[in-house]
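haha ok so turns out i had the wrong file open the whole time. this is the CORRECT one, sorry everyone. sequence first:
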Amino acid sequence: MKAVVDTVEEQLNQIKEMMPSLSKEKAAILIALNAVSDQLEKQAQLNQLNDKLPK
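then structure:
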């Protein structure tokens, strides 16, 4: 869980550096959207690999 907190804090700091006027709430939404996007991408990759396995 510490790794998750550290990653979110790091991403929050990066977003605040790029867009200092952005509220913490909006930055958190961006982080959440990015996380879901990454999850969907990884799931698609996993699905492709599973499709290549013999059945």
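The mean pLDDT is 95.
again sry for the mixup
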